[in-house]
Write a structure and sequence with these properties.
It is globular, with a radius of gyration of 18 Å. The two termini are 23 Å apart. A 5-stranded mixed sheet has the order 1-2-3-5-4. It has 195 residues and is an alpha+beta fold. It has helices at residues 2-38, 41-69, 76-83, 102-122, 163-173, and strands at residues 89-94, 128-134, 138-146, 177-183, 186-194. 54% of the residues lie in helices and 19% in strands.
Length: 195
């Protein structure tokens, strides 16, 4: 039980903080280099403004994570709508929503967060669409975004990072399944959990 709880907390730390802190470090290094090596104050100030934005986003995500870990977490459609509050994208919900186990709801929310974050980073600001479908046997989450004109051989999240692996692990722990990859010019992440 303690090992399971530690693994769950470790996933939360990664999902919430690793992205924000990693990107923040890069922004601060860039600002430092622009000042020290080039004396470019304007570009350094832009990097610092980006760093401040990352801090704000990280705090927002941390608050969401704390709410999600609590038993009074909002219903999944509401949590997904809140995820898109500050981002370009759209949410559609089909079927009659019903309560999922806390682990299943949190897993789907984290998959959506990772997919939307990756779309913002790697798809040049293309909006992500989220579709949540409730059926008798379970729930399917689908997150899509347009692929950039030049797509690397390896998609973001498949090399060097823990995002895609973390999504797979989350769903395996609750007997869910995940598929992620290019489909007809779009990057599609599909997660399914049983009822």
């Amino acid at each position: 039980m303690a090992l399971t709880e530690r693994s769950r907390i470790a996933r939360e730390i990664h999902d919430v903080l690793a992205h924000s802190l990693g990107a923040l470090g890069i922004q601060l290094q860039a600002a430092e280099a622009m000042l020290a090596e080039r004396g470019d104050i304007d570009r350094a100030l832009r990097s610092l403004a980006g760093a401040r934005r990352l801090v704000d986003e990280g705090l927002t995500e941390t608050r969401r994570a704390v709410r999600a870990l609590r038993t009074d977490a909002p219903p999944l459609p509401d949590a997904l709508a809140a995820l898109l509050d500050d981002r370009r994208g759209a949410l559609t919900v089909s079927g009659e929503p019903y309560a999922l186990s806390p682990a299943a709801g949190l897993a789907l929310l984290r998959v959506a967060q990772e997919a939307v974050t990756n779309a913002a980073k790697h798809a040049h600001g293309e909006p992500a669409t989220i579709a949540l479908e409730y059926a008798d046997m379970g729930v399917e989450l689908r997150v899509e975004n347009a692929l950039p004109d030049t797509v690397a051989v390896e998609h973001p999240g498949t090399a060097g990072g823990y995002g895609l692996a973390g999504m797979h692990e989350r769903l395996r722990l609750i007997d869910g399944e995940l598929q992620a990859g290019p489909v007809g010019g779009r990057w599609v992440v599909r997660a399914r959990v049983t009822r």
